[in-house]
Structure formats: structure tokens, C-alpha cells
# Entry
Amino acid sequence: MKNFLLLTSIAFSCLVHAQKTRVLALDLSTPTEKSLRFEDGEGDSARWLSVRSADLISLKLIKGNPLKYSYRINGAPITLFMNADEWNRLFSEPSDNKEAFAKQYDAATYESLPKKNEKLEKRLENLEITLDRFELENTNKESLDDDFKKDRALLFDTLKQANYEAHANKACLEQGMNNPEYKNLLSEEEKAKAEKNIKSNIDQADKMLKSFETKYFFSNEFYTLPMEHQGKNIDAIEFTVKRVNKETNAEDETFTGKYKVWITGGMKIDISAGVFLTSLFDKEYEARDISDDSGNKEIVLKNRGNYDFAFGSTINTNFRINSWVQPQLSFGAVFTQNQKFQLILGGGIILGREERWILSGGLSMGVVDRLADRFQAGGIYDLGTSGQVPTIKQFKFGHFFGITYNLSKVNTISIKPK
# Structure
């Protein structure tokens, strides 16, 4: 019992460790089949993009433009999330710590505050123009790349510096007004004007920085939750990605993103129907007169060939591989030309991907007519006044060949964002 539990535990551990999450990265800047790749690069050179049946799958959208478009996966809207851990640190850098600012000023700095405030006011006005240009330029792009990130970082640093300077000027003014040594450096009129300008600059700098943080800091990457498909009777995972113009709220008809990822490994069950050749069929006999006057007749086997036509369907269990040709096992039933029912069991190959033909062969079994006991073909017997050849029904085995068409279309499941 202990050995059994140990082996079970090892097998379960192997199964858990064998399963992994595969991340599919979709480049939204070029919505074609080639835009979809595995993030780790593994399997990109395969004939079809495929994932093992045991693996989880997650979708990552990259290089979109959330400033211009909203995106939908299979009709469901998605959200581009912020990297909070990284950006909270960046947002906290512009500080209004007065002790830190107090170290920044001296008498000359205090005396030059009116001019510094005027210069900062003009810088903030120019920054507003720069922000409008930045928004217009990036809103008109189809996708945002690394250049957007670089420009965003530079502009963010500039805004932080202006914000820092505005708060530093406030701290400098407060410290100077409370310092008896500096009381005659600025007139009351200059102090009042500086105080007013500083408040205006701080309000403007804070507003611009907060707006920039809220509007432009997004990861521009979206991950769906890992989806499990093990044990599901599917051929592929399918999804569509569409984008909607935020300004017009209209779907972009030029953006066509329909993707399919095939499943490999494990087994898939389908149903097919078609024609068969079976070696198992009724044997027909005739009674022929002989030359003597005994009244006996010779039993002669009619030559019907080696095979009979049949029509039927099979349940196919195939082994999913990334190929046009896949092995399969089949079990089903057929009816011969004279409406005899037979069971068939065999194997074969599936040809095709979307439309699938199956070539198969194997064992056939059923009840067929045979000569009654003690009678043989070629023998001479007294068949009585009826002259009928006596037959009985027997369960026999034979073989078959078949060609069928898969009645099941490609069975898919969809990725849904959560």
C-alpha cells in the first residue's frame, strides 16, 4: 500500500510539474496571423501555432494605442492595467517636504523669487503647449511603441522638475519671510505678488502632473487569466480582437484580428460517415442438376468477388499532432447492400485540418448466411422437392477498408478576458 501511494504521489507531481502556462503575445500594430507568437519564442517555427493539451494558455496584447482605441476580445471589453509597484515610486518623487526644500535656498535665492516665478510661469505655459502636442501626436498613432515610452519619461521628468521647483519656491518664500535677516530683501508688494504667483504655479504644476500621470501611465499590455483546456474535446482555441475608436465610438472595420491556436497532445473524439469495402457478406449458392437420374443436385457457390460495398459511420479517436496527417482509432457500424448490419473496429489516418477525410481499415464482424452443417460447396445432395440450398446464420469476422468524411467541424473554445 505504501509503495502504491508513493508511486501515485510521484505520478501526480510529474503531472503538475509538466503543466505550464504558455503566453501568447499579440502585436496589435499589425493584426495578421503572423502577429501572434509565443512570448518565449518556443514553437514559432512550427507548421501551425499550437499548444499542448496539458498546458494553460494566456493572451498578452502589446503595442496597442489605448489613447485612440478601446479593444475587445470576443466582444468583451478589456482594460489595460497600470504597473502600480513601479509607478507609485515614480509618482512619489515630487515631494513637498519643506525641510528638504529649505536646504535649497539662501539670501540670493530668496531675493530672486519674483523673477524665478515669472520664468516658471512661462515654462508651465510652454509645457501646456508641449502636452497638447504630445497628446495630438500619440492619439493619431495606430500603436504606441518604445518611442512613446521614451517621450513620456522625458516629459514626466520635466513636469516633476517644474512641480518640484514650484513647491521649492513656496518653501523658500515662507522660510525667507520668517527670517529677520531677509525682511528687507523684498518689498511687501513683491512678497504679495510672489505669493500669488507661487500659488498659481503650484496649482498649475500639480494639475498638469496629476493629469499626465492619470492619462499616460498605462502598461499598454494586457494579460488574460490562464485558461485550462485539458480534457476538453476540442481542436483549437479561437478568438477575435477588435478595436473601437474612442472619439467616434465606431468599430474599426479595417482591423481584422481573428486567430486560432491548435491543440496538440491528448485524444480527440469525432464522428465520420462514408463508404466501406467489407470482406464479410452473405455467400449465395445455387442448386444445379446433375446428369444422372437420381434427382440429386450439386451445390455451387456463386462468385460475388472478395468484397461487398457498405455504408456507415464511425466514432474516431485521434491523437492530436501538429500535422496534416494524424493517426486515429475507429469504432462504428455499417450496412451492406442487402441491409446486413456489421460492427467495425480498426485504425487509420486523418487527412486535412479544417476539412478532414479519414482512411481506415481493420476488423469487421457480423451475422452472415453460410451453408448449413454437413453441406459443402461442390457437394451433391438430395435437396428434396423444394430444391432450396439450406443455409444458417453465423457470426463471423472479416476485414474492411473505408473512406469517410468527418461530420464534426473544427471544435473550438474561446478566450474570454476576466
The radius of gyration is 41 Å. Helices lie at 2-18, 84-91, 98-102, 107-111, 113-139, 146-177, 188-216. The first helix runs from residue 2 to 18. The longest strand covers residues 391-406.
